[in-house]
Amino acid sequence: MSKNQGIIEFLAMSGILPLAIFLIIILGGIGFLLLAVFSMSKDKSASCAQQDGSECKRLDTYYDPSLPERSCPNCSGNISKGKVVCSTCGELDSNVIST
Questions:
Q1: pTM of the predicted structure, to 2 decimals
Q2: Within its chain, how far is the Cα of 54 from the centroid?
Q3: Angstrom distance (rounded) from CA 66 to CA 58
Q4: Which stretches are transmembrane (predicted)?
Q5: Cα separation, 6 vs 90, whole angstroms
């Protein structure tokens, strides 16, 4: 009988081995949950300013045909017809959508 086998047998007979395995499984699950939460909480880009529930609206691709072509209040650039984000500075037109 090897030394490691003797240690494992001692832990199993004393009831510590099932507790140790249970503790390792619990810690592994907590670690997995923390990793999942961390990976989901990445920084949102500036074009992702509006949130609808847990889903983020991509404002740089948002199109509303009723919006006219207008000048940006921040940089005097051009905001295309139907868009809410300035093509020059990338800022949101606060006159159309409030964040």
A1: 0.38
A2: 10
A3: 18
A4: 12-38
A5: 67
d(CA 75, CA 12): 72
Q: How many CA atoms lie within 13 A of 39 on its CB side?
A: 6
DSSP 58: -
pLDDT of residue 60: 67
CA 57 remoteness from chain centre: 13
Task: Provide the pLDDT for residue 45.
Answer: 47
Report domain extents, the chain: 3-40, 47-94
**Residue with the larger pLDDT of the pair 90 and 47:** 90
Mean predicted lDDT score pLDDT of the chain: 76
Alpha helices in the chain (DSSP H): 3-14, 16-40
Q: Would you say residue 53 has pLDDT above 60? A: no
Distance CA 21, CA 19 (A): 5
For the record, the structure tokens of 76 come out as 């005097």
